[in-house]
Amino acid sequence: MADTVSITKLLWSDITEIYAKVLAHPFLAGLTDGTLPRESFRHYIIQDAHYLRGYARALAVCAAKAPNQGETAMFARHAAGAIAAEQALHAELMAAMGSSAEAAAAEPVAPTTRAYLSYLLATTHGGSYAEGVGAVLPCYWIYAKVGEELLARSSPDPLYARWIAMYGGSDFQAVVDEVLAVTERIGAELAARELDLVREHFTTTSRYEWMFWDAGYRRESWPV
């Protein structure tokens, strides 16, 4: 069992160095000082739209595997919310950049996006419920932490400030808090081996979070 140790504290302690590198990434620095090239932001938004559609499917798997109705309903609601965010915010941002959601959907899924989603879907489908929660948690939690940090700085660019406000707001934090509470409940019941797997998945997808921002900054494409 995970004894009396808070699993969320344990998980976060596993990724403190990763999170520090996330905050230091020039993509995020460029958002807050307004120097991020529009093309890098556009690449990120397009890939995020692709990602959220797959992430919603991973959350739906968590909903299907949840051991009680409350958690099934929560993950189902969050899956629907991911689709809604993809449809609303991304359409708005793409329009502001002179494009459209339809044009974004037609662009190819980049290597890091494909790899991240493949890992999420393989883990949620093939692993236990706890493993699935561990895998999907960084996208919730790191975005809330980053949003909170960036909200304090905001951005002179109104488009970037709009994105920051979404993830730095109290509404998104309330969603994250729901998942953290579920994670704590799960952690109290885990055997040592499954806890190790949850930690491994959590760390892996936290690394993918850094890679996702880096891919956007580099405007990653397939090399061949």
UniProtKB/TrEMBL annotation:
GO MF terms held by the record: thiaminase activity
Pathway assigned in UniProt: Cofactor biosynthesis; thiamine diphosphate biosynthesis
Keywords assigned: Hydrolase, Thiamine biosynthesis
Domain Thiaminase-2/PQQC: 12-218
Reactions it catalyzes: thiamine + H2O = 5-(2-hydroxyethyl)-4-methylthiazole + 4-amino-5-hydroxymethyl-2-methylpyrimidine + H(+); 4-amino-5-aminomethyl-2-methylpyrimidine + H2O = 4-amino-5-hydroxymethyl-2-methylpyrimidine + NH4(+)
EC code: 3.5.99.2
CDD domains assigned: TenA_C-like
Keyword Hydrolase: yes
Class of enzymatic activity (EC top level): hydrolase
Domain of life: Bacteria
Functional note: Catalyzes an amino-pyrimidine hydrolysis reaction at the C5' of the pyrimidine moiety of thiamine compounds, a reaction that is part of a thiamine salvage pathway.
Family affiliation: Belongs to the TenA family.
Protein name per Swiss-Prot or TrEMBL: Aminopyrimidine aminohydrolase
Species of provenance: Pseudonocardia hispaniensis
